[in-house]
Write a sequence for this structure.
């Protein structure tokens, strides 16, 4: 037997309705915010991620699935969706559309990391990307959309944490202060942070090594170094969140794990799955489009993993709506009426009724058992007496009640239920 690769998971028919509900709700909320869908390929040229994410990040350095194709080109299965959307924005000249341009996506992403609950090597993300809005109002809209989706999905055990990591100008002073602080503790930092100290000291704050986390807890706060414009941006966001009754706290330790972030960064976190983890993360990345060859364009967005979201909903006991059931199972009393059962099933489906029938030659009793296992609401029985009378016997499986329905009224009978 060939087994599924480690770090991947099948979504079985008995579970897929949960995904469908999450995706349907996400589409509904995005529609309320006038956000339209974008889809990008599963793989991109490796250079895209090297230029946008940063070659000293964990994603690029340790987690990407990169290979050489038959044409000798370096190709990477996308580890995140923000850079591919930026590439598409530039390549397809989407700046010619009326801005701001609001987009959402569902996408598989691939990262080679240790599998854990809700964290797989192939997982699926729902996210949004707003292009062309520089004000904190768009940071607020993105956070508000995520908040509305999560709360409507029944996820209430959440904390919103926000921070500003400044712009390239004010970050220079902070990087200098952080380097000085980290250099004094260099012997206590992990080897990876030794490299980060030289290339991008801000990444030290995002290190997951426990000893490094203890050290950086005493690091200077970036909020003490951001410029007046970045401070005003942060204050405006806080005002909007407060007015919308979206609870939050400022956490100067949030920097996110990718190099393209500027100004606002945020996370929705929970401890419902054990150790505190991030359910949704995002922020602003005003330099991203320029880094992939486009004109300077302000951008803000978020991403959240659907696997983790579904696990969280189950962990806190928030119920999913029941999966859609078969409305009616058409049953034949003997094989000679099998074609009549198929014909009726076709009529019902074309009338918009969820219908099915058995085509394996089961006995009458076995067909009833099959209908019960499929959780059908009704069965419509056709046999000799029904053919002669021009009616169908209809039974409700929940209570066993039965009645007859004229053959020419059968679609109306079920369409109204």
């Amino acid at each position: 037997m060939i087994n599924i690769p480690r770090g991947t998971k099948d979504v079985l028919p008995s579970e897929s309705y949960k995904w469908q509900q999450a995706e349907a709700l996400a589409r509904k909320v995005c529609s309320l915010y006038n956000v339209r869908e974008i889809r990008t390929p599963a793989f991109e040229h490796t250079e895209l991620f090297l230029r946008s994410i940063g070659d000293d990040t964990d994603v690029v350095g340790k987690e990407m699935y990169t290979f050489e194709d038959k044409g000798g080109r370096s190709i990477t299965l996308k580890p995140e969706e923000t850079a591919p959307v930026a590439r598409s924005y530039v390549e397809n000249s989407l700046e010619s559309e009326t801005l701001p341009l609001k987009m959402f996506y569902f996408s598989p992403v691939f990262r080679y990391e240790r599998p854990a609950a809700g964290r797989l090597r192939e997982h699926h993300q729902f996210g949004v990307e707003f292009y062309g809005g520089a004000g904190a109002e768009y940071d607020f809209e993105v956070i508000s959309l995520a908040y509305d989706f999560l709360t409507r999905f029944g996820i209430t055990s959440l904390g919103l944490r926000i921070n500003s990591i400044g712009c390239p100008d004010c970050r220079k002073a902070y990087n200098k202060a952080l380097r000085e602080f980290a250099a004094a503790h260099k012997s206590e930092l992990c080897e990876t942070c030794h490299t980060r100290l030289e290339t991008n000291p801000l990444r030290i704050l995002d290190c997951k090594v426990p000893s490094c986390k203890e050290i950086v807890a005493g690091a200077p706060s970036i909020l003490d170094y951001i410029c007046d414009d970045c401070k005003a941006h942060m204050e405006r966001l806080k005002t909007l969140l407060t007015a919308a009754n979206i609870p939050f706290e400022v956490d100067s330790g949030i920097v996110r794990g990718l190099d393209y972030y500027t100004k606002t960064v945020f996370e929705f976190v929970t401890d419902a799955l054990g150790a505190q983890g991030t359910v949704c993360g995002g922020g602003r990345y005003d330099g991203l489009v320029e880094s992939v060859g486009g004109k300077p364009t302000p951008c803000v967005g978020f991403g959240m993993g659907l696997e983790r979201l579904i696990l969280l909903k189950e962990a806190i006991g928030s119920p999913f709506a029941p999966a859609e059931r078969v409305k009616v199972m058409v049953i034949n009393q003997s094989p000679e009426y099998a074609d009549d059962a198929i014909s009726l099933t076709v009529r019902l489906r074309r009338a918009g009724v969820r219908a099915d029938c058995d085509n394996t030659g089961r006995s009458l009793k076995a067909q009833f058992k099959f209908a019960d296992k499929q959780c059908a609401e009704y069965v419509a029985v056709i046999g000799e007496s029904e053919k002669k009378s021009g009616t169908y016997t209809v039974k409700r499986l929940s209570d066993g009640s039965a009645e007859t329905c004229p053959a020419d009224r059968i679609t109306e009978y079920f369409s109204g239920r």
